[in-house]
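Reopening: Type II secretion system F family protein still failing for me.
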Amino acid sequence: MPSFNYEALDGAGRRLTGTMDGDTHAAVLSELDRAGLLPIRAVEAKPRKTRTWRQILTPEPKAEDITAMTLDIVMLLKGGVTLSEALTLLTQMGGSRWRTHVLDDLRLALSVGKPFSRALAEHPRLFPPMYLKMVEVAEATGRLEDALTSLAEERQRVERLRKRLIGAISYPAFLIVSALSATVFIFLYIIPQFENALEGFRDKVDPTALMVFNASAFLRSHLHTIGMTLGAAVVGLFLVSKLAEGRCLWVGLAGRLPVVKTVLTHDTTLKFCRTLSVLLANDVDISSALRLLRTIIRVPAAARAIDGVIADVRKGRRLSEALESHPFLPKHVTQMLRVGEESGRLADSASRVSVFYEARLDTAYSRLIAVIGPATMMLVSMLIAWLIISVMTALMSVNDLLK
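Support: Ran it again with your exact input. Result attached.
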């Protein structure tokens, strides 16, 4: 009997994690429900496999690669090819080692009678819970082609927005790194060239200029210690960012900034409504849809609110009422979802909201670029100008004293 790692909430709203044996994913969720817990997710625990050096050194597929593979499968399914034949053809077409490896694993799993969703679940790092649930439901309803099409389209939207965000922060990040590099170079190699000219006149130099020379001396004398400290800090931040809790922490801190807060609000609303629409349109029940939504929302306050919404919905309350009791979406969004719920077209209402907020998020990214780029350029220019003026002021002061 396989084991599953689960996450659930108790009656007090505390998050519980553990491992439970069960025949299927649904059986574990049912057992947690019978135990009086609110199940969030259950993922089959796989024994650690020894990886060869070739597998370790070979990059794993990116999210874009999985999306492209999904589109390839959809194209072949629309051409009348069975799923097993589609996987065989894609394996024979070749590609990266990891792509071929994953396709071959999926094909072998199907050949021994495993459902496609169970085969995908053996690669949890590549196929998230939403992907698995939609495929599982599609297999039961015979709509696998439609489900994979919806998944591929949704992943493409997410990837476009991610690239937009990366584009928004890449240029300012480049400016900041360039400014820091130029500053370090000036402190280490340029300013020391003028220190001999200040010998005997340090008490006569302007305090601001003297601070620059003292900072240069401190940096040169403690260069190794500073370098090791910064290296350890970078490694520590990298490790923390790899943890789900760490990512949520950074998102929570960034959400306190005025401009970033608006972007995160739009992003959370878009993710919630878009994902809800896709899941409901593919016959995923509302409780399962909310549990899957809980796994993709990174803003801590919104995630806690969704926990409350899940609990209320399981008690029989309507979604719109639960959203009003645990507000994390704009009020007009909750009202639009209420209208869709009352008319029996909740998926359509959520889809319309997501289209609107996708446009707003794109506009917010444009404003972010328009603000951060020039602001960073001004700060870089002011920093370099301050250093140059400080050094020139000190030299002019020495020159005046020598006259």
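The chain is about 75% helix and 5% strand. If you still see a failure, please send the error message rather than a screenshot.
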